[in-house]
Amino acid sequence: MTTVDTATDPSPTGATGAFPDAFLWGVAFAANQVEGGFDEGGKGLSQADVIPFRVASDYVDITSLMEASAASIAQAVATPGTDGYPKRRGSDFYHRWESDIDLFAEMGLKALRMSIAWSRIFPNGDDLEPNEEGLLFYERLFLRLREKGIAPVVTMSHYEMPLNLVTEYGGWTNRAVVGLFERYARTIATRYQGLVHYWLTFNEINTTVIEPYTGGGVIAREPDPGVDPRQASYQALHHQFVASASATRIVHDVDPSAQVGCMLARMSHYPASSDPADVVKAQFDNNMNLFHSDVQVRGRYSGHVRRFWRDQGIDVRMEPGDDELLAANTVDFLSFSYYMSLVSSVAPEKYGATGGNLFSTIKNPHLSTTEWGWHLDPEGLRYVLNDLWDRYQVPLFIVENGLGATDVLTGSPADPTMGAPDTRRVHDPYRIDYFVQHLRQVREAIADGVNLLGYTAWGGLDIVSASTSQMTKRYGVIYVDADDDGRGSFDRIRKDSFYWYKRLVDTNGEVLDELMSQKSD
């Protein structure tokens, strides 16, 4: 495990307010949202392939957008093709990956945070032998990245476990899935030894207790009045922790030079007031978010979650040797996503339900919001970086941060018959401003002494949204010409933010000091 002697090196990156020379600038996306080709190359169905397009306004609880029942899965399996199931087509990266990587190289990117579709390697999850065609697809992709000088940062499981493990095994509630994941981890670690230096085990592992299907492959069932519905989620989560520790051990055994990280959806909580009860509530909420990284970085469950389980009557079954496995196989670095901060109170009803903001109903009056209602809190990113560094003292990596917005495409495609050039453009100064405001705070955190490996913006290309499966909530610096129904050319069009991000990489962050009024190329 990587260690840092902070007594002799209070600023591990050697930073004095600027970004380190080896800083990994990049973009990020997940296989299930970008690849498409859901039934090609020997791939099996994944849990994401059965989530349909949904309209967020139809759901009171936004987390239910990403859930599934036995009936909805059966209907999806019986539905052929991609109509109604946008993740099956993604952004067509499966067929366009070479030219897409050329675009990433044009930006000068140092890293691409991506994932491997588990069901492309083991179509059913419990197959005895891997799918060679799937293995070869990623091998070619990694070789192309190496040619372009782009380091892959690869997530083993990013909301895309094989559907068979969901329907036949009960997802991560079944201990047997741990062994199947170990087989998968050993297969890819061995095959891509020397091609992948940075591995992540599970994406946003804390979502398993928020979105049990998406995070843990746990199907929604009829409520049992005698069973806490959180019981299955926490059991699934424990199995994921065990699998993550096993995968970390496997990677280190196969390739001692490789680094393994965990990945957390970091949602910091502010108290709604200076009332000590609100402060304690915010502390509790933060600790319940951070116990996930406690397990993977410190190697043990915190007292906060153990007390919570006792108080709530939740009994997580652990096998002999689990504690020792977790303690002996901690990660080398901590990666996380950051999109917003939240507000906690012992009496949230006093503040009124505002809706919209993910996982929170209390509006922070000091912050603006995105068009999807998410709090915009750039300074919160500096706070999070310092908080995580002080707590863990391991290298950090921001692997998701970006703005979802409705972009407007202007102009027309080229018309060779008329000699007309391609005039299509996307002007997105709001996205550039988002990057500037957040990255200035990242720079401040580095000056504070935080050891930060890199920053990969979500999501490079426009991709299918994780929650609603829509294309019109766009995160990319590269526009993908497709609508929510999959209509369009799927052409790639550089947005203004593409050119700005290129300057960001070329100048190693110095572009952050330019006037925002400066026009993009």
Helix and strand layout, with pairings?
Blueprint: E1 24-28, H1 31-34, H2 70-77, H3 93-106, E2 111-115, H4 118-121, H5 132-147, E3 151-157, H6 163-167, H7 176-191, E4 198-202, H8 212-216, H9 230-254, E5 259-265, E6 269-271, H10 276-298, H11 303-312, H12 322-328, E7 333-337, E8 342-344, H13 378-392, E9 396-400, E10 409-410, E11 425-426, H14 429-448, E12 452-458, E13 478-480, E14 492-494, H15 496-506
Parallel strand pairs: 1-2, 1-12, 2-3, 3-4, 4-5, 5-7, 6-8, 7-9, 9-12
Antiparallel strand pairs: 10-11, 13-14
Characterize the structure shown.
The longest helix is centred in the middle third of the chain and has 25 residues. The two termini are 43 Å apart. The chain has a single domain, classed as TIM Barrel. It is an alpha/beta fold. The radius of gyration is 22 Å and the shape is globular. Helix 7 packs parallel to helix 9, helix 9 crosses helix 12 and helix 13 runs parallel beside helix 14. An 8-stranded parallel β-barrel has the order 1-2-3-4-5-7-9-12, surrounded by 4 helices. It has a two-stranded parallel ribbon with strand order 6-8. The chain is built from 15 helices and 14 strands. The N terminus and C terminus are likely disordered.
Which tags fit this structure?
about 525 residues; alpha/beta; TIM Barrel; eight-stranded parallel β-barrel; 15 helices; 14 strands; about 35% helix; about 10% strand; globular
